[in-house]
Amino acid sequence: MGATFASCTGMQLTSCAISSLCSFACAAVGKSVGGNGTKATQVSRTARVTYLGLFLVTTMVAGIFRDVVPEYLGKIEWLSKNLACPPDRDSPTCVARAFVLRMCCAHVAFHMALALACIGADDLENPRSVFHTGAWGVKTLVWGLAHVATLFMPSALFLDFGWVALAFGVLFLMVQIILFIDWVFAWNESWIDKDGTNNVTGPWHLALGGVSLVGFTTALTLTGFLYSWFGHSTGDMTADCGMYIFFITLNLIAFLFLTGMSFKATEWMPSTGLMPSAMVSLFMTFKLTAGLYAQNQCNVIAQGPSLYRGPPGVVSAISIGIAVILAAYNSVWISGSMEATANREKAVLPTLRKESSSPAPATTEAAGTAPATAEPAAGADERQYPLLSDVQLDVVNTQEGGEDSAAAKKAKEEAMDKMEGPIGYNIAAFHFSFLLGMCYVGMQLTNWNEDFEQGHIDNSTGSMWIKVVDSWMLAAAFGWSMIAPMVLTGREF
Q1: In the predicted model, what is the mean pLDDT of residues 145-156?
Q2: Which residues pair with residue 239 across a beta bridge?
Q3: What is the pLDDT of residues 408-428, one digit of tens each?
Q4: What is the model's pTM?
Q5: Which end of the chain has the least Cβ crowding within 10 Å, N or C?
Q6: pLDDT tens, position by position, 393-404
């Protein structure tokens, strides 16, 4: 029942992500139709959306069919031999675990191949960039065939791959921490800038206070529930729950200490403050909740009635949903520089046109000064505005009259349609981020490469330790992000 609920909830969260994907795609189409953005920007946007869609499809297939594959596909004679696990590694859930790892491996191989093919090809003029931005029919066919092909390979291969996926899944957690801390700092700084640093009574400062209050209240409330849920055992009265109580207490002390530290850090790092520490406290507590839920020794939720009345699989489902959402966020986050570059180019052009059409300052021979040169000097524009292409510089330097305006407009349209210039992000890193996200989702669905009982998701001692240590790493990374500007004075933050 728990696994069924977790699968359903996880797929609902994935459906929400797909809805967001559709909204993003519609926005992209709208911008394309309206002429907002260069063709290069539109191509990059389409690529991000498509890769995210493929990631979500693989996640849904692995999650939905995980528990039904042994029952249905195992009856197909020509498939059963490959799906069966080796006798020395067989278990009731081995076939299901191997199926998830098959889907995971196919998706990982797909992105690994694209990452290797696109190393250093971060400019649209590089012919290898087409591996990332084009040939969608071929790539989609290869992606689909790769998933189908795994069904004809022995399970032992994918059971071994599970250890590789585990390492990548742990690496994804580290990347997740960096992204999360970067996001909360950017969020806090953005809202502060809207009011001004000194306007502490402004609406955006008050909104930050409200978000901080909700975050701390939720973290403290959840901590109280953790003592109730994991501080004792209803099944085995002799079970020692002292270690789990220690984890909860340590988490509470850590986020209270980090909160106090964040107030001091505002003296040299204005982007920190109450809101980032509140969000980090809440995320730390959730990670600890997911970790403690994975063990069965002191788990009132799994053992019997408790204050929590929801289905037991909800924690695992939320964890899977977070992985999907973070992968979606990552695909947009790392490509932000391209959008910013395009916007800067469009903002600079009108200013340059105005400057180039202004008359040159008058000079007199009596003053003994040489006549000023009215020529706009394209070379100077290239030095001052290196982001503009040669065609766009020609547009700037031909804004002199009615006839030239028509020619300049045509030249600008041609510049916008050109497939040239930097893509704006590291393509290899883009595909590697999806590779890591797929491995993390695969580990969630396979109990971190361990056998599991039918009807259970992400439930083992190994999973507990991974998530508890992950919460400690989040605390350490957030603390370091606040003291680093004071320690590494020679670097810019």
Answers
A1: 92
A2: none
A3: 555 555 555 555 667 777 888
A4: 0.71
A5: N
A6: 444 454 444 445
CA distance 327 to 179: 10
As to burial, measured by CB atoms within 10 angstroms (0-12 exposed, 13-18 middle, 19+ buried), residue 45 is buried
Q: Count of alpha carbons within 13 Å of 154, Cβ hemisphere only?
A: 8
Inter-axis angle of helices 94-117 and 39-65, to 10 degrees?
170
Percentage of the chain lying above the pLDDT 90 cut: 24
* Cβ(467)–Cβ(315) below 8 Å: no
Q: How many CB atoms lie within 10 A of CB 111?
A: 23
312 φ/ψ angles, rounded to the nearest 5 degrees = -70, -20
Residue of 4, 2, 13 whose CA lies nearest to 320: 13
| pLDDT tens per residue, range 4-37 | 444 444 444 444 444 444 444 434 433 433 344 5
Token digits of residue 33: 């139709």
Residue whose token pair is 């190994």:
462
Token duo for residue 155: 């399970």
Terminal-residue alpha carbon distance, the chain: 48
Q: How many whole angstroms separate alpha carbon 436 and alpha carbon 57?
A: 16
Strand partners, 473: none
Burial class (CB in 10 A: 0-12, 13-18, 19+), 84: middle
- The 3-state secondary structure of the chain reads CHHHHHHHHHHHHHHHHHHHHHHHHHHHHHHHHHCCCCHHHHHHHHHHHHHHHHHHHHHHHHHHHCCCHHHHHHHCHHHHHHHCCCHHHCCCCHHHHHHHHHHHHHHHHHHHHHHHHCCCCCECCCHHHHHHHCCHHHHHHHHHHHHHHHHHCCHHHHHHHHHHHHHHHHHHHHHHHHHHHHHHHHHHHHHHHHHCCCCCCCHHHHHHHHHHHHHHHHHHHHHHHHHHHHCCCCCCCCCCCHHHHHHHHHHHHHHHHHHHHHHHHCCCCCCCCHHHHHHHHHHHHHHHHHHHHCCCCCCHHHHCCCCCCCCCCHHHHHHHHHHHHHHHHHHHHCCHHHHHHHHHHHHHHHHHHHHHHCCCCCCCCCCCCCCCCCCCCHHHHHHHCCCCCHHHHHHHCCCCCHHHHHHHHHHHHHHHHCCCCECCCCHHHHHHHHHHHHHHHHHHHCCCCCCCCCCCCCCCHHHHHHHHHHHHHHHHHHHHHHHHHHHCCCCCC
**pLDDT surpassing 60 at residue 349:** no
Burial class (CB in 10 A: 0-12, 13-18, 19+), 157: middle
